[in-house]
């Protein structure tokens, strides 16, 4: 492994940054990673045994410090971390200690998602995304006019495959219906609170629907994927458009009623809305149907005429025609890393030397392939692969 193609990344145990005067800014442990004229300092906390993952940026040209808006779920505290930049748009973070489901993370600093967020917010933004092995199943978005049967179809799927699918619990400012439970059907909230949380970057998407605010939080998706399940989102067409434009890489399905008359019958039979709200939802349904069928947002359109037929078609689309084939997805496999390790980058390979912070004394090596990363914030970064050691035998 030549010196010119590989370099040892900043390790947490090194007290780094003295040359930039960084050491006075953080007590405890941290790593620095320099991309262009920005140095990202990740880590911190007052106690070296438990690191709280924080991010600050040092502008080398001006000598200024900036605390960016940090989107995505902050990683859990850990005992240390290593960092290495990949393609100048994201930093790979490897946490120390036995945290297999949470040990490989990406801090996005200049991906498409982060650049868009910087434009909208006019300030420095970074975003966390958890790394997962292989191709975890894509989230499923179900859209369609109110009363078409989205909730019914989703319930059928979740009842038949409880360990396979998990529902993304949205936030809404509308009042709960009789049987709805907070935290189960929705997170019921208030406009001012939700406005602030949207500003703080906690939402993947949000939209005003039938006079109320609805939105999918990053956390709602993470709760499902962390449980090793495939995420189902029940959101309107505006939300679907935002998801389509994001890096979530979801499968988007639009559900149509057999007719507008039947849609009205279903909405009335459900007896959950006032007459005024039924009329509002029917008016909006016309627009949603037009957009849903013609906008190019959706990958599939299903007609919910006979419920059982529609459910079978939905299962077919999701590749689960028979119950026997459905098993839980191990969507967030991680690596069990020993506390002591060091990290090297060579082309698109990350070599993790285990057992010691000194690479030449490593007792085991893990080779991570990062050449086919997919997705990213605000979802997961998929496509990580652990390679056999053939080309990287211990020296
Ligand atoms: P959405 O979630 O799209 O607003 P729901 O799932 O609440 O719609 O369904 C609206 C009503 O229509 C419910 O009372 C449900 O039982 C009923 N329903 C759903 N699908 C069908 C169908 N294929 N045929 C007849 N009624 C249906
Ligand atoms: P309801 O009030 O009937 O539960 O939902 C009304 C509409 O809001 C439905 O079209 C539903 O798909 C949509 N909706 C529910 N949650 C979300 C969300 O998080 N984001 C968006 N954009 N729409 C949502």
From TrEMBL:
Keyword Lyase: no
CDD domains: GMPK (cd00071)
Known catalytic reactions: GMP + ATP = GDP + ADP
SUPFAM superfamilies, per database record: Galactose oxidase, central domain, P-loop containing nucleoside triphosphate hydrolases
Keyword Transferase found: yes
Enzyme class, spelled out: transferase
Pfam assignment, any one: Guanylate_kin
GO MF terms held by the record: ATP binding; GMP kinase activity
Record key words, sorted: ATP-binding, Kinase, Nucleotide-binding, Transferase
SMART domains: GuKc (SM00072)
GO terms under cellular component: cytosol
Domain Guanylate kinase-like: 137-319
Record-stated family: Belongs to the guanylate kinase family.
PANTHER family: GUANYLATE KINASE (PTHR23117:SF13), GUANYLATE KINASE-RELATED (PTHR23117)
NCBIfam families cross-referenced by the UniProt entry: guanyl_kin
Protein name: Guanylate kinase 1
């Amino acid at each position: 492994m030549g010196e010119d193609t590989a370099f040892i990344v900043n390790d947490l145990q090194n007290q780094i940054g003295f040359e930039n005067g960084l050491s006075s800014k953080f007590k405890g442990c941290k790593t620095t990673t320099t991309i262009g004229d920005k140095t990202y300092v990740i880590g911190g906390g007052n106690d070296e045994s438990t690191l709280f993952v924080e991010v600050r940026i040092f502008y080398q040209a001006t000598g200024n410090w900036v605390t960016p808006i940090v989107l995505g779920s902050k990683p859990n505290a850990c005992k240390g971390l290593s960092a290495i930049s990949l393609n100048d748009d994201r930093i790979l973070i490897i946490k120390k200690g036995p945290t297999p489901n949470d040990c490989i993370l990406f801090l996005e600093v200049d991906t498409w998602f982060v650049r868009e967020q910087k434009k909208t917010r006019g300030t420095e933004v970074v975003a966390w995304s958890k790394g997962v092995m292989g191709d975890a199943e894509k989230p499923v978005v179900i859209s369609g006019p109110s009363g078409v049967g989205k909730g019914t179809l989703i319930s059928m799927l979740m009842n038949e495959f409880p360990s396979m699918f998990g529902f993304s619990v949205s936030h809404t400012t509308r009042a709960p219906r009789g049987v709805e439970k907070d935290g189960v059907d929705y997170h019921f909230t208030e406009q001012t609170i939700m406005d602030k949380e949207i500003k703080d970057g906690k939402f993947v998407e949000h939209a005003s629907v039938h006079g109320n605010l609805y939105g999918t939080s990053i956390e709602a998706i993470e709760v499902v994927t962390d449980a090793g399940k495939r995420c189902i989102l029940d959101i309107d067409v505006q939300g679907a458009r935002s998801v389509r434009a994001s890096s979530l890489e979801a499968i988007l399905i639009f559900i149509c009623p057999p007719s507008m008359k039947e849609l009205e019958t279903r909405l009335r039979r459900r007896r959950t809305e006032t007459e005024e709200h039924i009329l509002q939802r029917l008016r909006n349904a016309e627009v949603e149907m037009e957009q849903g069928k013609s906008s190019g947002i959706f990958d599939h359109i299903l007609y919910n005429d006979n419920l059982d037929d529609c459910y079978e078609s939905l299962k077919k689309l999701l590749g689960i025609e028979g119950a026997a084939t459905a098993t839980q997805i191990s969507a967030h496999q991680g690596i069990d890393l020993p506390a002591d390790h060091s990290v090297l980058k060579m082309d698109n390979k990350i070599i993790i030397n285990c057992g010691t912070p000194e690479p030449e004394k490593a007792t085991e090596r893990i080779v991570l392939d990062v050449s086919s990363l997919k997705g990213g914030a605000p979802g997961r970064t998929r496509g990580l692969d652990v390679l056999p050691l053939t080309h990287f035998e211990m020296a």
